[in-house]
Specification:
mainly alpha
């Protein structure tokens, strides 16, 4: 019985979404329309407007980041001594 419940728990949201789609309701449709209207509301630049110069790029950093930072941290520490 527990295997059935374990299988059913992830399937319930999928069945709920499928039911709403079959009934003609599209979850998130209003949010997508609002976002599209907000994006379309910005006016494109006029052709007679002076072109702005692009912002200068920030200086490139050579410091390790992310996974490389973790790798460097582990590489600098020796493993613990076995007692």
């Amino acid at each position: 019985m527990t295997e059935f419940v374990t299988f059913l728990l992830p399937v319930v949201p999928l069945l709920g979404l499928l039911a709403t789609l079959l009934l003609g309701r599209y979850p998130g449709c209003e949010a997508i329309v609002r976002l599209a209207e907000r994006i379309a509301g910005h006016a494109p630049p006029r052709p007679d407007a002076p072109a702005r110069s692009p912002l200068p790029k920030p200086p490139r950093s050579f410091a390790p980041a992310g996974g490389l930072l973790i790798a460097f941290g582990h590489a600098q520490r020796p493993p613990p001594l076995a007692s």
